[in-house]
Amino acid sequence: MKDLYEVLGVNKDASDSEIKAAYRKLALKWHPDKHQGDKDAEQKFKEMNMAYEVLSDKKKRQQYDTFGSAGGAGGYGVGSGGFGGFNGAGFDFSGFSDGAGNFADIFESFFNGGMGGSRGNRRKKSGAMRGNDIEAHVKITFEEAVFGCEKELEITKPDVCKNCKGSGVEQGSSIITCPTCRGTGEIRSVRNTILGQIATSSTCDECGGEGKVPEKKCGVCHGTTRVRTKENVKVRIPAGVDNGSTIRLSGKGEGGVKNGPSGDLYITLQVSPHKNFVRDGYDIHSEAEIHLVQAVLGAEIAIETIHGKEKIAIPAGTEDGKVFKLKEKGIQKINTDGKGDHLVKVRIKIPSKLSGKEKELYAELAKEAKVEVKKGGVFW
Fold first, then answer.
1. pTM surpassing 0.85?
2. Domain limits at 66?
Protein backbone atom coordinates (compact mmCIF):
# COMPACT_ATOMS: atom_id res chain seq x y z
CA MET A 1 0.00 0.00 0.00
CA LYS A 2 1.58 3.22 -1.14
CA ASP A 3 1.08 6.64 0.38
CA LEU A 4 -0.35 9.10 -2.17
CA TYR A 5 2.20 11.76 -1.23
CA GLU A 6 5.04 9.28 -1.76
CA VAL A 7 3.66 8.36 -5.18
CA LEU A 8 3.99 11.99 -6.33
CA GLY A 9 7.23 12.52 -4.40
CA VAL A 10 5.99 15.48 -2.33
CA ASN A 11 5.73 16.29 1.37
CA LYS A 12 2.39 16.20 3.17
CA ASP A 13 2.44 19.99 3.50
CA ALA A 14 3.07 20.49 -0.23
CA SER A 15 1.19 23.38 -1.85
CA ASP A 16 -1.26 22.92 -4.74
CA SER A 17 1.32 24.28 -7.17
CA GLU A 18 3.99 21.87 -5.90
CA ILE A 19 1.60 18.94 -6.30
CA LYS A 20 0.70 20.04 -9.82
CA ALA A 21 4.36 20.50 -10.77
CA ALA A 22 5.27 17.06 -9.41
CA TYR A 23 2.38 15.45 -11.28
CA ARG A 24 3.31 17.15 -14.56
CA LYS A 25 6.92 16.02 -14.24
CA LEU A 26 5.92 12.39 -13.56
CA ALA A 27 3.31 12.43 -16.34
CA LEU A 28 5.99 13.40 -18.84
CA LYS A 29 8.32 10.71 -17.52
CA TRP A 30 5.91 7.75 -17.30
CA HIS A 31 3.44 8.48 -20.11
CA PRO A 32 2.51 5.18 -21.85
CA ASP A 33 3.41 6.61 -25.26
CA LYS A 34 7.03 6.74 -24.12
CA HIS A 35 7.01 3.21 -22.64
CA GLN A 36 4.85 1.18 -25.00
CA GLY A 37 4.44 -2.36 -23.73
CA ASP A 38 6.05 -1.58 -20.37
CA LYS A 39 3.61 -2.79 -17.71
CA ASP A 40 5.59 -1.24 -14.86
CA ALA A 41 5.47 2.19 -16.51
CA GLU A 42 1.75 1.75 -17.15
CA GLN A 43 1.19 0.90 -13.47
CA LYS A 44 3.22 3.93 -12.32
CA PHE A 45 1.18 6.16 -14.65
CA LYS A 46 -2.07 4.83 -13.18
CA GLU A 47 -0.81 5.29 -9.62
CA MET A 48 0.30 8.90 -10.12
CA ASN A 49 -3.00 9.77 -11.81
CA MET A 50 -4.93 8.28 -8.91
CA ALA A 51 -2.76 10.16 -6.40
CA TYR A 52 -3.19 13.45 -8.26
CA GLU A 53 -6.96 12.96 -8.50
CA VAL A 54 -7.13 12.93 -4.70
CA LEU A 55 -4.45 15.43 -3.71
CA SER A 56 -5.51 18.06 -6.25
CA ASP A 57 -9.04 18.10 -4.83
CA LYS A 58 -9.19 20.00 -1.51
CA LYS A 59 -12.15 18.02 -0.17
CA LYS A 60 -10.70 14.62 -1.11
CA ARG A 61 -7.28 15.59 0.20
CA GLN A 62 -8.71 16.68 3.55
CA GLN A 63 -10.59 13.40 3.81
CA TYR A 64 -7.44 11.46 2.92
CA ASP A 65 -5.32 13.37 5.46
CA THR A 66 -7.96 12.83 8.17
CA PHE A 67 -9.12 9.27 7.59
CA GLY A 68 -6.58 7.82 5.17
CA SER A 69 -9.33 7.39 2.58
CA ALA A 70 -10.66 9.54 -0.21
CA GLY A 71 -13.68 7.65 -1.41
CA GLY A 72 -13.12 7.36 -5.14
CA ALA A 73 -9.39 7.03 -4.62
CA GLY A 74 -9.94 3.36 -3.85
CA GLY A 75 -8.86 3.23 -0.22
CA TYR A 76 -6.06 4.42 1.98
CA GLY A 77 -3.35 4.38 -0.64
CA VAL A 78 -2.38 3.27 -4.11
CA GLY A 79 -2.14 -0.48 -4.60
CA SER A 80 -4.22 -1.33 -1.51
CA GLY A 81 -5.11 -5.00 -1.20
CA GLY A 82 -8.54 -4.19 0.22
CA PHE A 83 -11.30 -1.96 -1.06
CA GLY A 84 -12.59 1.38 0.12
CA GLY A 85 -11.66 2.12 3.74
CA PHE A 86 -12.12 -1.48 4.97
CA ASN A 87 -8.57 -2.63 4.37
CA GLY A 88 -7.11 0.44 6.12
CA ALA A 89 -9.39 -0.19 9.08
CA GLY A 90 -7.92 -3.64 9.53
CA PHE A 91 -10.39 -5.73 7.51
CA ASP A 92 -8.59 -7.57 4.73
CA PHE A 93 -10.85 -9.92 2.73
CA SER A 94 -8.17 -10.90 0.24
CA GLY A 95 -7.77 -14.32 1.84
CA PHE A 96 -11.43 -15.31 1.30
CA SER A 97 -12.45 -16.65 -2.09
CA ASP A 98 -15.66 -17.82 -3.68
CA GLY A 99 -13.85 -19.79 -6.34
CA ALA A 100 -14.34 -17.16 -9.03
CA GLY A 101 -12.81 -14.12 -7.35
CA ASN A 102 -11.97 -12.82 -3.89
CA PHE A 103 -14.40 -11.79 -1.21
CA ALA A 104 -13.65 -8.11 -1.64
CA ASP A 105 -15.03 -8.30 -5.19
CA ILE A 106 -18.33 -9.55 -3.81
CA PHE A 107 -18.64 -6.63 -1.44
CA GLU A 108 -17.71 -4.28 -4.26
CA SER A 109 -20.55 -5.73 -6.29
CA PHE A 110 -23.01 -4.98 -3.47
CA PHE A 111 -21.91 -1.40 -2.96
CA ASN A 112 -21.97 -0.69 -6.68
CA GLY A 113 -25.46 -1.96 -7.36
CA GLY A 114 -25.06 -5.69 -6.59
CA MET A 115 -27.84 -8.26 -6.32
CA GLY A 116 -28.79 -7.68 -9.93
CA GLY A 117 -28.18 -3.92 -9.87
CA SER A 118 -26.18 -2.00 -12.47
CA ARG A 119 -22.68 -0.66 -12.08
CA GLY A 120 -23.17 1.96 -14.73
CA ASN A 121 -21.60 4.60 -12.49
CA ARG A 122 -18.28 2.83 -13.07
CA ARG A 123 -18.62 3.04 -16.82
CA LYS A 124 -15.48 4.24 -18.51
CA LYS A 125 -15.63 7.72 -19.92
CA SER A 126 -13.83 7.58 -23.22
CA GLY A 127 -15.16 10.63 -25.05
CA ALA A 128 -13.23 13.76 -25.92
CA MET A 129 -10.10 14.17 -23.78
CA ARG A 130 -7.54 16.95 -23.56
CA GLY A 131 -4.07 16.09 -24.84
CA ASN A 132 -1.16 15.87 -22.40
CA ASP A 133 1.24 18.76 -21.85
CA ILE A 134 4.78 18.21 -23.13
CA GLU A 135 8.12 19.75 -22.20
CA ALA A 136 11.11 20.74 -24.32
CA HIS A 137 14.52 22.25 -23.51
CA VAL A 138 16.14 24.98 -25.59
CA LYS A 139 19.73 26.21 -25.25
CA ILE A 140 20.37 29.92 -25.83
CA THR A 141 23.40 32.19 -25.43
CA PHE A 142 23.88 34.80 -22.72
CA GLU A 143 23.23 37.57 -25.26
CA GLU A 144 20.07 35.89 -26.58
CA ALA A 145 18.70 35.74 -23.04
CA VAL A 146 19.52 39.42 -22.48
CA PHE A 147 18.11 40.82 -25.72
CA GLY A 148 15.54 38.17 -26.67
CA CYS A 149 15.44 36.03 -29.80
CA GLU A 150 13.32 33.67 -31.87
CA LYS A 151 13.98 29.94 -31.97
CA GLU A 152 12.54 27.11 -34.02
CA LEU A 153 12.43 23.59 -32.64
CA GLU A 154 11.12 20.27 -33.86
CA ILE A 155 8.58 18.56 -31.61
CA THR A 156 7.62 14.89 -31.92
CA LYS A 157 4.25 14.17 -30.35
CA PRO A 158 0.93 12.32 -30.71
CA ASP A 159 -1.38 14.57 -32.73
CA VAL A 160 -4.84 14.42 -34.26
CA CYS A 161 -4.98 12.08 -37.26
CA LYS A 162 -5.53 14.19 -40.37
CA ASN A 163 -6.94 11.27 -42.34
CA CYS A 164 -9.99 10.83 -40.06
CA LYS A 165 -9.84 14.28 -38.40
CA GLY A 166 -9.69 12.65 -34.98
CA SER A 167 -12.79 10.47 -35.34
CA GLY A 168 -11.02 7.13 -35.74
CA VAL A 169 -13.34 6.29 -38.66
CA GLU A 170 -12.09 5.54 -42.17
CA GLN A 171 -13.21 8.04 -44.80
CA GLY A 172 -16.49 6.94 -46.38
CA SER A 173 -17.33 4.78 -43.38
CA SER A 174 -19.63 5.60 -40.45
CA ILE A 175 -20.21 5.05 -36.72
CA ILE A 176 -22.32 2.02 -35.82
CA THR A 177 -23.71 0.46 -32.65
CA CYS A 178 -21.14 -1.70 -30.89
CA PRO A 179 -21.94 -5.34 -31.75
CA THR A 180 -20.28 -6.63 -28.59
CA CYS A 181 -22.31 -4.70 -25.99
CA ARG A 182 -25.17 -3.77 -28.35
CA GLY A 183 -24.82 -0.11 -27.55
CA THR A 184 -24.94 -0.35 -23.75
CA GLY A 185 -21.22 0.25 -23.26
CA GLU A 186 -21.15 -2.58 -20.68
CA ILE A 187 -20.72 -6.31 -20.56
CA ARG A 188 -22.99 -7.90 -17.94
CA SER A 189 -22.41 -11.25 -16.29
CA VAL A 190 -23.98 -13.32 -13.51
CA ARG A 191 -21.98 -15.53 -11.18
CA ASN A 192 -22.74 -17.77 -8.25
CA THR A 193 -21.21 -16.77 -4.92
CA ILE A 194 -21.60 -17.76 -1.28
CA LEU A 195 -24.12 -14.94 -1.03
CA GLY A 196 -26.14 -16.14 -3.99
CA GLN A 197 -26.23 -14.98 -7.59
CA ILE A 198 -24.65 -11.59 -8.20
CA ALA A 199 -24.92 -9.67 -11.44
CA THR A 200 -21.97 -7.51 -12.36
CA SER A 201 -21.04 -5.38 -15.32
CA SER A 202 -17.79 -4.12 -16.76
CA THR A 203 -16.82 -1.62 -19.41
CA CYS A 204 -16.97 -3.00 -22.92
CA ASP A 205 -13.43 -3.36 -24.24
CA GLU A 206 -14.54 -3.06 -27.84
CA CYS A 207 -16.11 0.41 -27.63
CA GLY A 208 -14.52 1.66 -24.42
CA GLY A 209 -17.92 2.22 -22.82
CA GLU A 210 -19.33 4.46 -25.55
CA GLY A 211 -21.69 1.96 -27.13
CA LYS A 212 -20.56 2.91 -30.63
CA VAL A 213 -17.63 1.88 -32.82
CA PRO A 214 -16.35 2.73 -36.31
CA GLU A 215 -17.84 0.61 -39.06
CA LYS A 216 -14.30 0.59 -40.42
CA LYS A 217 -11.34 1.91 -38.45
CA CYS A 218 -9.13 4.60 -39.94
CA GLY A 219 -6.32 2.99 -41.92
CA VAL A 220 -3.79 5.56 -40.68
CA CYS A 221 -4.39 5.76 -36.91
CA HIS A 222 -6.16 2.34 -36.69
CA GLY A 223 -9.03 3.89 -34.76
CA THR A 224 -6.90 5.51 -32.04
CA THR A 225 -7.70 9.01 -33.45
CA ARG A 226 -4.03 10.11 -33.11
CA VAL A 227 -0.71 9.49 -34.82
CA ARG A 228 2.87 10.46 -33.94
CA THR A 229 3.93 13.52 -35.90
CA LYS A 230 6.79 16.02 -36.11
CA GLU A 231 6.01 19.72 -35.96
CA ASN A 232 8.30 22.71 -36.30
CA VAL A 233 7.39 25.26 -33.65
CA LYS A 234 8.63 28.85 -33.53
CA VAL A 235 8.95 30.45 -30.11
CA ARG A 236 9.61 34.09 -29.33
CA ILE A 237 11.92 34.37 -26.34
CA PRO A 238 11.50 37.77 -24.62
CA ALA A 239 14.42 39.92 -23.47
CA GLY A 240 15.48 39.37 -19.87
CA VAL A 241 14.80 35.64 -19.46
CA ASP A 242 17.12 33.69 -17.19
CA ASN A 243 18.43 30.15 -16.98
CA GLY A 244 15.56 27.81 -16.04
CA SER A 245 12.83 30.18 -17.24
CA THR A 246 9.77 28.45 -18.71
CA ILE A 247 7.67 29.61 -21.65
CA ARG A 248 4.20 28.12 -22.26
CA LEU A 249 2.82 27.74 -25.76
CA SER A 250 -0.90 27.08 -25.47
CA GLY A 251 -2.28 24.29 -27.64
CA LYS A 252 1.14 23.13 -28.87
CA GLY A 253 1.24 19.98 -26.74
CA GLU A 254 -0.18 16.56 -27.57
CA GLY A 255 -3.30 16.54 -29.72
CA GLY A 256 -6.59 15.82 -27.97
CA VAL A 257 -8.34 12.46 -28.11
CA LYS A 258 -11.57 12.32 -30.13
CA ASN A 259 -11.53 16.03 -30.93
CA GLY A 260 -10.60 17.06 -27.41
CA PRO A 261 -8.42 20.20 -26.98
CA SER A 262 -4.66 19.97 -27.39
CA GLY A 263 -2.32 20.18 -24.42
CA ASP A 264 0.31 22.88 -23.93
CA LEU A 265 4.03 22.97 -24.71
CA TYR A 266 6.35 24.08 -21.89
CA ILE A 267 9.79 25.24 -23.03
CA THR A 268 12.54 25.36 -20.40
CA LEU A 269 15.48 27.61 -21.26
CA GLN A 270 19.13 26.70 -20.67
CA VAL A 271 21.32 29.81 -20.84
CA SER A 272 25.04 29.40 -21.57
CA PRO A 273 27.40 31.31 -19.24
CA HIS A 274 29.35 34.36 -20.49
CA LYS A 275 33.16 34.41 -20.38
CA ASN A 276 33.34 37.95 -18.91
CA PHE A 277 29.97 38.65 -17.29
CA VAL A 278 28.17 37.07 -14.35
CA ARG A 279 24.42 37.55 -14.01
CA ASP A 280 22.68 38.25 -10.70
CA GLY A 281 18.97 38.74 -11.34
CA TYR A 282 18.85 41.69 -13.72
CA ASP A 283 22.31 42.98 -12.68
CA ILE A 284 25.59 42.11 -14.39
CA HIS A 285 28.95 41.82 -12.62
CA SER A 286 32.40 42.09 -14.20
CA GLU A 287 35.98 42.94 -13.26
CA ALA A 288 38.46 45.47 -14.69
CA GLU A 289 42.20 45.73 -14.15
CA ILE A 290 43.82 49.13 -13.50
CA HIS A 291 47.48 50.08 -13.13
CA LEU A 292 48.90 50.89 -9.74
CA VAL A 293 49.54 54.45 -10.90
CA GLN A 294 45.90 54.82 -12.02
CA ALA A 295 44.73 53.69 -8.60
CA VAL A 296 47.01 56.18 -6.88
CA LEU A 297 46.54 59.21 -9.13
CA GLY A 298 43.06 58.52 -10.54
CA ALA A 299 42.03 57.90 -14.16
CA GLU A 300 39.18 57.40 -16.60
CA ILE A 301 38.83 53.91 -18.07
CA ALA A 302 36.54 52.21 -20.63
CA ILE A 303 34.36 49.30 -19.48
CA GLU A 304 32.79 46.68 -21.75
CA THR A 305 29.06 46.19 -21.09
CA ILE A 306 26.31 44.31 -22.92
CA HIS A 307 25.22 47.68 -24.32
CA GLY A 308 28.72 48.65 -25.57
CA LYS A 309 31.65 50.49 -24.01
CA GLU A 310 31.06 52.87 -21.10
CA LYS A 311 33.54 55.14 -19.29
CA ILE A 312 33.94 55.32 -15.53
CA ALA A 313 36.04 57.72 -13.46
CA ILE A 314 38.59 56.15 -11.11
CA PRO A 315 39.20 58.59 -8.24
CA ALA A 316 42.70 59.02 -6.79
CA GLY A 317 43.44 56.59 -4.00
CA THR A 318 41.12 53.85 -5.24
CA GLU A 319 41.58 50.59 -3.34
CA ASP A 320 41.72 47.10 -4.80
CA GLY A 321 38.25 45.49 -4.96
CA LYS A 322 36.27 48.74 -5.06
CA VAL A 323 32.95 48.33 -6.94
CA PHE A 324 31.61 50.95 -9.35
CA LYS A 325 27.98 51.00 -10.53
CA LEU A 326 26.86 51.77 -14.07
CA LYS A 327 23.18 52.49 -13.52
CA GLU A 328 20.67 50.77 -15.85
CA LYS A 329 23.42 49.22 -17.97
CA GLY A 330 22.31 45.73 -17.02
CA ILE A 331 19.53 43.45 -18.25
CA GLN A 332 16.07 44.46 -19.44
CA LYS A 333 13.44 43.64 -16.80
CA ILE A 334 10.64 41.49 -18.19
CA ASN A 335 7.35 43.34 -18.78
CA THR A 336 8.82 46.70 -17.65
CA ASP A 337 10.89 49.52 -19.14
CA GLY A 338 13.55 49.30 -16.43
CA LYS A 339 16.96 47.69 -16.56
CA GLY A 340 19.33 46.30 -13.99
CA ASP A 341 22.78 47.76 -13.27
CA HIS A 342 26.30 46.82 -14.33
CA LEU A 343 28.65 46.47 -11.36
CA VAL A 344 32.41 46.66 -11.98
CA LYS A 345 34.98 45.52 -9.44
CA VAL A 346 38.45 47.01 -10.05
CA ARG A 347 41.58 44.97 -9.53
CA ILE A 348 44.91 46.78 -9.12
CA LYS A 349 47.59 45.20 -11.24
CA ILE A 350 51.06 45.29 -9.70
CA PRO A 351 53.77 45.36 -12.39
CA SER A 352 56.12 42.36 -12.28
CA LYS A 353 58.83 43.93 -14.45
CA LEU A 354 60.05 47.53 -14.74
CA SER A 355 62.15 49.35 -17.26
CA GLY A 356 65.27 51.19 -16.10
CA LYS A 357 63.44 54.52 -16.18
CA GLU A 358 60.54 53.11 -14.16
CA LYS A 359 62.96 51.78 -11.57
CA GLU A 360 64.46 55.19 -11.16
CA LEU A 361 61.06 56.82 -10.79
CA TYR A 362 59.90 54.28 -8.21
CA ALA A 363 63.19 54.75 -6.31
CA GLU A 364 62.64 58.51 -6.29
CA LEU A 365 59.07 57.97 -5.15
CA ALA A 366 60.25 55.73 -2.29
CA LYS A 367 62.81 58.36 -1.30
CA GLU A 368 60.20 61.12 -1.40
CA ALA A 369 57.77 59.03 0.66
CA LYS A 370 60.60 58.08 3.05
CA VAL A 371 59.90 54.42 2.46
CA GLU A 372 62.66 51.89 2.73
CA VAL A 373 62.94 49.47 -0.18
CA LYS A 374 65.13 46.45 -0.62
CA LYS A 375 67.51 46.40 -3.52
CA GLY A 376 67.63 43.16 -5.40
CA GLY A 377 63.84 42.76 -5.08
CA VAL A 378 61.46 42.06 -7.91
CA PHE A 379 62.01 45.43 -9.47
CA TRP A 380 65.82 45.44 -9.33
1. no
2. 1-92
